[in-house]
Amino acid sequence: MQWSELFTKENEPSESQIKEFVGTALWDDLDGFLKTEYKVKPKVSYSSCAMDKGMWKGWNVKYKKSGKSLCTLYPKQGYILSLVPIGAGEMNDAELLMPLCTQYTQNLFKQQAGSGHKMMMLAFEVESEEVLRDMKNLIALRVTSR
């Protein structure tokens, strides 16, 4: 059963239900990292967006620090779908970071970089520790930029 069917708009999931549905230690790693490293409290919210065949529909978990979005996590069975914003102030540092990232992350970045926008939203399918590391490094740019 899909996440949006299991937890409808009227049925907000608990942290333990989210963790159980995702079913990977990557969730605990990322959630714990964001809470510990940046002292942020996640906010569970509902999105009715139906783009990409409902991929973004349903309950998600947002992490913000000082009003700035660090990432939004969408629980998927066996992995995490995550949106990480890269603002104009982080773009140069993100470009410098790319050679140290996985090929997967480099490809995501290249696809977005050609859009001509000053800000990009990288949509990660986090299925490995290596991609999770890339995501953490990009989030660190959001926190340290002004």
SSE run: HHHEHEEEHHEH
The radius of gyration over CA amounts to: 15 Å
Number of strands: 5
Overall morphology: globular
Q: What fraction, in percent, of the residue positions are helical?
A: 40-55%
**Any idea what the CATH architecture is?**
2-Layer Sandwich
Question: In words, what does this structure look like?
Answer:
- It is a single chain.
- The chain is an alpha+beta fold and 146 residues long.
- It has one domain: 2-Layer Sandwich (BirA Bifunctional Protein, domain 2), CATH 3.30.930.
- It is 44% helix and 25% strand.
- It has seven helices and five strands.
- It has a five-stranded antiparallel beta sheet with strand order 1-2-3-4-5.
- Helix 3 packs parallel to helix 7.
- The model has no long low-confidence stretch (mean pLDDT 89).
Keywords summarizing the entry:
alpha+beta, 44% helix, five-stranded antiparallel beta sheet, 25% strand, 146 residues, BirA Bifunctional Protein, domain 2
Care to give the gist of this entry?
This protein has 146 residues and is of the alpha+beta class. It is 44% helix and 25% strand.
List the helices and strands and how they pair.
Elements: H1 3-6, H2 15-22, H3 25-38, E1 43-47, H4 51-54, E2 58-65, E3 68-76, E4 79-86, H5 91-97, H6 103-113, E5 120-126, H7 129-144
Antiparallel strand pairs: 1-2, 2-3, 3-4, 4-5
Helix pairs in contact: 3-7
